[in-house]
Design goal:
Layout (H helix, E strand, L loop, with lengths): L3 E4 L3 E5 L8 H15 L8 H9 L3 E6 L4 E10 L4 E9 L8 H16 L4 E6 L2 H10 L2 E3 L8 H5 L7 H6 L8 E5 L1 H10 L12 H36 L1
Parallel strand pairs: 5-6
Antiparallel strand pairs: 1-2, 2-3, 3-4, 4-5, 6-8, 7-8
Protein name: GNAT family N-acetyltransferase
InterPro entries: Acyl_CoA_acyltransferase (IPR016181), GNAT_dom (IPR000182)
Pfam families: Acetyltransf_1 (PF00583)
């Protein structure tokens, strides 16, 4: 993997390092603002945490050729390197819809495969564009039970407004969709083709995304009704007491 790539004639996407530490506060502020606007959460991180990822060579940053910050993503490991997550994908509002999210995500995927070639690469998201990018990279939707059992992994969701949904369902359901790239599955697929061109992964994102959007709307209505019933029940309990 090349550490630095020039995308188009304007953008530079590279593995972050000490030279990028001054962007950390701006990145954190944009993560928080973006989460507020969407009503869901990128796990809140401190500038110090972002700096640590840069120094460790576990982050991807995009800038313009004049040094403006464009986007960012970092990688985390769980269960002693069994799982790798590409987390905190964020693009500055001025550069959205420019293809930079995909460029950053692809670079983070390459970095994950380089550092942890045997790890399962995972992600949880409510964003359809991110799901599309993941799908193009070979991720498949998975149940939450297939994701890390480590409490620290799920603690990263604590800053999300839907965290109570996750905890009430014992981490079985939420508004996010879990996704995974399993290198072992890819090896098995390749070996069973006997040298022929491997079949594409079975999840047709473009075909099924409209169904997913419909399911998300239904899911949100169901969860909202549950919230309302729980509030009425609690209010009744207080009055009785």
């Amino acid at each position: 993997m090349k550490n630095t790539e020039v995308v188009g004639s304007k953008f530079i996407v590279q593995t972050a390092n000490e030279n990028h530490l001054h962007y950390a506060e701006q990145i954190c502020a944009e993560m928080e603002e973006s989460a507020k606007k969407r009503g869901t959460g990128i796990a809140k991180r401190s500038p110090v945490y972002i700096m640590e990822k840069m120094v460790e060579g576990k982050a991807i940053i995009a800038t313009t050729d004049t040094g403006e910050w464009v986007g960012f993503c970092y990688i985390e490991t769980w269960e002693h390197g069994k799982f790798v997550a590409n987390s905190g994908l964020i693009v500055h509002p001025d550069f959205r819809n420019s293809g930079m999210a995909k460029a950053i995500k692809m670079k983070a995927f390459e970095l994950s495969r380089q550092k942890y070639p045997d790890a399962k690469i995972i992600g949880i998201t409510t964003s359809l564009p991110v799901m599309k990018i993941n799908s193009d990279l070979g991720y498949e939707p998975v149940t939450f039970s297939e994701l890390p059992a480590d409490d620290a992994f799920w603690k990263g969701c604590a800053s999300c407004v839907n965290y109570d949904v996750l905890t009430r369902t014992n981490r079985k359901h939420c508004l996010c969709t879990g996704m995974m790239y399993d290198p072992e599955d890819k090896k098995n697929t390749a070996s069973t083709t006997n040298g022929a061109e491997p079949e594409k992964h079975t999840w047709d994102f473009l075909k099924e995304s409209s169904l997913y959007e419909r399911w998300m709307r239904i899911k949100q209505r169901i969860l909202l009704r549950r919230e309302e019933r729980a509030k009425k029940k609690n209010a009744g309990a207080v009055l009785v007491h």
